[in-house]
Amino acid sequence: MPVIRSIAARRGLAVIAALPLLALAACGYGSDAKDDTKTKVAAGAEKIDGLDSVKIGYFGNLTHATALVGRQEGLFQKELGATKAEYATFNAGPSEIEALNSGSIDIGWIGPSPAINGFTKSEGKSLRIIGGSASGGVKLVVDPKKIKSLKDVKGKRIATPQLGNTQDVAFLNWIADQGWKVDAQSGKGDVSVVRTDNKITPDAYKSGSVDGAWVPEPTASKLVAEGGKVLLDEASLWPDEKFVITNIIVSQSFLKEHPKVVEAVLKGSVETNKWINANPDEAKAAANRQLETDSGKALPAEVIDPAWKSIQFTDDPLASTLNTEADHAVKAGLLEKPDLTGIYDLTLLNKVLAAEGDSTVDDAGLGVK
User: What does pTM read for this prediction?
Assistant: First the structure.
C-alpha cells in the first residue's frame, strides 16, 4: 500500500509523521466531566464484557456535537451500562490520532483528513471508520473591507486550522480550482495560507494579521460576530450540499477485542443524532453546556445560533465524499494517491441501524474485505 507523503517528504522530510508533534501543544485531552446525574452509571447496571471503561475523544467544535450532546445527556453512558465512559478533548486531529495509536483513547470523533492520514501512515493497521456524525459547518469568512468577492481572496492572508487538516485541504483544493498557485507546505503563493489554531483565529482576525479564514463552526460564526462576512459556505461546493466533516473512528485492536462496547457507543451515537434532529433547540443548549464544561465558557447566541443551523447530523459517513477529499489532498500535493480499502467497517453501525428500523449505510467500496 502506498505510504502517505507530502511534497516535503519527497525532499526528505516526513511532514505527516511530524504533524502530531506540531499539535502536542494544542492537545487538550484528559478533561473530566462535572458530576451530573445524566453521566452517572445507573444502579444495578452491568459492565459490557467485564470492561471497566472506554475512552472517547472529540473536539470542542460544534461539528462534533454528537459527542458533545451524547456526553452531556448521558446517552453514551446509558448504552454502556456499568462500563464507564471516560472522555478526552482535543484541538487537532493529529493529536487525537496519536492518542488513539498510544491507547490513550479507544474511540474518537474526528475529521476525514486526519483519519485518512492515520490509516494510510499505519499502512491500514491503526484505525477503522465505524460511523458518521456530521456534514457541513465549514465556511470561508473574510473581512468585508478587504475582500468583497471571491476573486479578491488572491493576494490575501487566509487562516486554516492546521497544515493538512480537513479545512486546510479543502481550501488548498479551492485555491487550485481558481487557477492560483500555493506551495502546500509553506502556504506561500498567490494566497498566503496561515495555519492558525481555531482558538487563536478570532484574535488574529481582530488584529488584522489575517484577512479571513476557512474554518469549522463555531469559529466561523465567531468571526462573523467580529464583523466578518461569510463569503462561501463549503457545502455549496458539494453534490446535494453534503460532505463528511466528522466521522467516528476506533482503534482496530479495541474493535477486535471489545465489539460489544463499540456497538454500545454506536447505539449511543445513533440515539443522540435522533434526539438532536428531533429536538434541535434542546440539543443546541446541551452542546453549549458541554462546551462550557470543557472550556469554561459557553457560546453566545449570536455565535451558536447561526453555527448550529449550518450543520447536519447524520449516521451516514458519506463515504464517497471521503474518497473525494483524499483526491483533493493528492491534488494539493499533500498526499500520494492512497489505497483506502478497508478504512471503513460499518458492520456494527448497520446492525444498530437495522435494529432501529433505519436504512443502512454504504462504504463506497472502501470497507473491510
Answer: 0.86
